[in-house]
Design goal:
By secondary structure, this protein is mainly α. The chain is about 60% helix and about 0% strand. It has a single domain, classed as Cytochrome c-like domain (Cytochrome Bc1 Complex, Chain D, domain 2). It has 6 helices and no strands. α3 crosses α6 (about 100-110). The radius of gyration is 16 Å and the shape is globular. Pfam families: Cytochrome_CBB3.
């Protein structure tokens, strides 16, 4: 009986953790894109907002890590393409495609600059 409860508890914790990683929805992200993105500071602000809406519940408000790994210095470990691959395809404990398209590219670029 105890094993049954432990298994149920672990399954519930995993489900809550995965649900939390999807904190925002892509409709919110689409509203932030005005079509006037000339790069630079605007792209950085967009990326920060996208991360705030989708990632901090697992990776922490300052990317210090919580349920998910620390990302504050991820650019010193992974390239932009590697980060984009993780965003698109996920990893164990992180579902893929929480962020897609141009938003995923902006976030990958921004995170790759975190050294």
């Amino acid at each position: 009986m105890r094993k049954k409860w432990m298994g149920l508890s672990l399954g519930l914790m995993l489900a809550i953790g995965l649900a939390a990683c999807g904190g925002g929805n892509n409709a919110d992200n689409d509203n932030n894109n005005t079509g006037n993105d000339t790069g630079g500071e605007t792209a950085t602000n967009d990326a920060e907002e996208i991360v705030k809406n989708n990632c901090i519940s697992c990776h922490g408000e300052n990317l210090e890590g919580q349920n998910g790994p620390e990302l504050a210095h991820i650019g010193s470990k992974l390239s932009k393409d590697d980060i984009l691959d993780v965003i698109e395809n996920g990893r164990p404990g992180m579902p893929g495609n929480l962020i897609t398209g141009d938003d995923a590219d902006k976030v990958a670029q921004w995170l790759s600059e975190k050294k």
